[in-house]
Amino acid sequence: MRHDEPDWTPPPADPEQPAQVRRILRLFRPYRGRLTLVGLLVAASSLVSVASPFLLREVLDVAIPQGRTGLLSLLALGMIAAALVNSVLGVLQTLVSTTVGQRVMHDLRTAVYDRLQRMPLAFFTRTRTGEVQSRIANDIGGMQATVTSTATSLVSNLTSVIATVVAMLALDWRLTVVSLLLLPVFVAISRRVGRERKKITSQRQKQMAAMAAMVTESLSVSGILLGRTMGRSDSLTQAFSKESERLVGLEVRANMAGRWRMSTIGVIMAAMPAVIYWAAGIAMQTGGPGLSLGTLVAFVSLQQGLFRPTVSLLSTGVQMQTSLALFQRIFEYLDLPVDIAEPEKPVRLRKVRGDIRFEGVTFSYETPSPRDPQGPRDPQGPRETQGATLSGIDFTVPAGGSLAVVGPTGSGKSTLSYLIPRLYDVTGGRVLLDGTDVRDLDFDTLARAVGVVSQETYLFHASVADNLRFAKPDATDEEMAAAARAAQIHDHIAGLPDGYDTLVGERGYRFSGGEKQRLAIARTILRDPPVLILDEATSALDTRTEHAVQQAIDALSAGRTTITIAHRLSTIRDADQIIVLDGGRIVERGSHQELLDNDRHYAALVRRDQRLTADV
Fold first, then answer.
1. Across the strands, what pairs with 561?
2. Which of 64, 121, 262, 571 could hold 423 in an S-S bridge, CB 3.0 to 4.6 Å?
3. Distance (Å, rounded) from C-alpha 327 to C-alpha 40?
4. Does the pTM exceed 0.85?
């Protein structure tokens, strides 16, 4: 495998904000029915809200001055009923809108996870795990307020503002004009504040991603072991403290951006009743058209009612601007090109024999052109390569046969093996399984056909049984035990206090290297693939442990097409065919004895391996 690829850089987002807004709105399209219900609830709530000031006007202008007790009682009951109905409508509105918002959040999380599951292996070799986790957890989590309440709040407050303004115009259009004079200024201020917060939010999310990556790496079992054995625990804490300190500054800036300007808007809005009373008093003293006490009080009540949704609308606008930065980061992941995709009409093989053939295969890692370090906007745009990793690879492994691939470090051995299960796609030539190009097969057929046991065994932080059943969810206890026996690990598992229910620990750290390898082999045996790839599966083990694991591998390989990436050449003497890679090309091929007789590359590798074994 090559590990010198440059770090992955996300593609630049579409600068056209309206297009991004339209894309956000499309997220809500599947829930049009529920959103319509929310709209009806909002409209009903707004109408009920503006009814109370008119009832109040009748109380002050008619019921009380004329001493009509019955009318007063009815009007009072009407005001109480309006408050009750409005409260019920608000609860229902919150329930429906929150449900819609959470469904949208679920859709986003699932879409991002699904896209990442289909990304090529190269993406994960270039991207820090913490960065990926931060996109799903922090970025989507940060959008929760927007998708669960902001959209509804926007509709609700906009409807309330419109209904209130209409009611104010019905009472007195002149006072309404006075009340709305400064509204354009308020809108301009809120838009500017929104742009500031959007910029800061983007910086904050990047910092949170950096912290998440640091936590993921340094607080894993491997990170803790490395930090303590290297005496770097204190320095790691100091480095984390610096990262956290940067986040403190960004959080303060994010919360204080435009705070004084928004507070000024609040003060002005709160002072408007005094302005209304003053304007009405001046008008009456100068002989202008007078207003009844009820009309004046009702108007001020409406004007005060206008204050809450107006300020909320302005704040919502700021929040939506801020959320655009989060949506932009999520859309970057959703827009990642899927290089390895299932064909439109995939071939499904009912029974796989396991015949493997490479025909003129070449492969190279593609990277963005150095002239454009961010990569092309078009995923299919011009690319430059780092040079061929594999070139002109031709060989055939008949069903049930065995092939060993050897060569110096960096010769392309692991890359060759990864082309069969399509962890990478060839850049030239073909890889055939039972005569069918693997790029034409459906993913399920390929996953059932090819099993991989690598040097770096991965186990989930779950029970032994759960780890084994990951290969076959419906496996019975008897099938698991049989697979474990074949892998030479059943007796050890049975001797544990909890048996197959024993937790393996983070990345399997409760088990030794050899035990983890045998668990991985048992998992593959349970999967029962006709094609088996062994990628240096015993290279990190001591000789005694290697012998036990090799017995398990022999049991696993029986009757299967086996391709072994060999580190210790003593494990491949009995392979039907051995090919030697150097610089991505096959420089020698034959059986073990034939290659020794040739006394070229393979013989030199065997002599070096023997010297290393003797030194140990």
1. 531
2. 121
3. 28
4. no
